[in-house]
What does this fold into?
Amino acid sequence: MNNTDTKLMKPDSSMGKLVKHLLRDRLAMVGLLLVILITGSAILAPVIVPHNPNKMNVHYRLKGPSIEHWLGTDQLGRDVFSRVIVGSRIALKVALISIGIAGGLGLVLGMLAGFGSKKLDSILIILFDTIRSFPTIMFALAVVTLFGPSLNTIILVVIITSIPVYGRIVRAQTQALRHNDFILAEKAMGAGKMRILGVHILPNVIGPLLIIASMDIPVVVTIEAGLSFLGLGVRPPTASWGSILNDGYAFIRNSPWLVIAGGAPLILTTLGFTFFGEALRDIFDPKLKQEVV
It folds into this structure.
């Protein structure tokens, strides 16, 4: 075997593929930098905020951007930059917790639907379709009416509405794998369903699921911001990008920096996680966008 054959047989590592793709794709690099910026600011928020985000000072209400207050102050004299940084913690907390739980439950239910009996598959599909038939905002309003506005309510809404999405993705992947030769060989050797699902199906379906989940982070962030904008999310004085937008909307004619401060993080988060998620998809599963969700 010559050196060329050896080189062809040696696959690039996943990290190597990621680095090469990022170096070639400017949008992917931009996405990575935005993701690092947003997550870093959320993690380091208690350290980098220059002022107490909830401290009121009516003497400095609705002041424009300055050296002391980079994004100005709101109608209560609170530092907007500090509230934006702290709001990133709320946004990512909701996104990571809700997507993590929904992804885990969707993974289990999707594998059961794709590898189980036709009766079980039909029941789970009907359940998925029933949940997805309700508009997300209408469903959120109904849940908020029952349980009251809070951060936990937002997380509950996102979990319930996201499980069918992830469940269908995993179901489609599982059904595509269940008739492969290596699965049939495992069955012939007497392997049980739990071993097949855990050892052979799970490693092959979790990758596409993580890619979709990473691209859903800005969607969940937007849902949290929308509910907080309507007064149905986090309660005052907790800082949220949605509540900052709501405050800015009331004073948009005189203090437009409030709307900009609340809207810009949502735009950057959407662009960052979308670009980075698409880069991951192109690297690890380029056929994912062609499959039925």
